[in-house]
Amino acid sequence: MAENRTEVLAGAAVLVIALGFFVWAAQGASFVPKRGGYEVRASFRSVEGITVGSDVRLAGVKVGTVTNLALNPVTFFADARIALNDGVVLPADSGLLVASEGLLGGAFIEVMPGGSLDNLTPGAEIEDTQGAVSLINLLLKFVAGGSSAPAAETAP
To answer: Sheet containing 61-71: which strands, arranged edge to edge?
Structure first.
């Protein structure tokens, strides 16, 4: 009888720990909605590496999260919805760019604050955006640019 009680207690402890990890992971992946803040919209040429739940950062500090990504069938741009935290007040002419943490790091959206005296309002669209830059395309341009230079002529 004591063995059954020990097994039940051990099983219950494992379930509680697993539930705790699930809640922790759900909060980190933004499955659990956060209270407060406001949402803005933006369209990008490319959001390569960005997914729902990706960070939105200002000066390296997380100030929001990507909440929705969809292809616009008219413009063929990626339309994004971004939830900014309460207390983050951005000038109306602020810009967004898709950035990466390094060669092997993940992608995030960087906020470039503008200088306008007016602030973004909930539901506003940020028009100044820069999409993701493909590292492979940059390397190919570098290699092609280096080999396409005319060779120096030698005198006879």
So the answer is: 125-126, 38-44, 78-84, 61-71, 55-58, 107-112, 95-100, 128-130
Q: What is the mean pLDDT of the chain?
A: 81
Quick one: which of 114, 30, 37, 126 has its CA closest to 79? 126
Render 110-131 in DSSP notation, one character per residue.
Answer: EEE----SSB--TT-EE-EEE-
State pLDDT tens for residues 13-54. Answer: 888 888 888 877 776 555 544 556 889 999 999 888 888 998
Q: Between β-strands 78-84 and 61-71, what pairing exists: parallel, antiparallel or unpaired?
A: antiparallel
Are 64 and 85 in contact by the 8 Å Cβ rule? The answer is: yes
Confidence of residue 2 (pLDDT cuts 50, 70, 90): low
CA dist 109 and 56 (Å) reads: 5
Q: Where are the domains of the chain?
A: 1-32, 38-142
The sign one gets for the Cα dihedral 112, 114, 118, 123 is negative
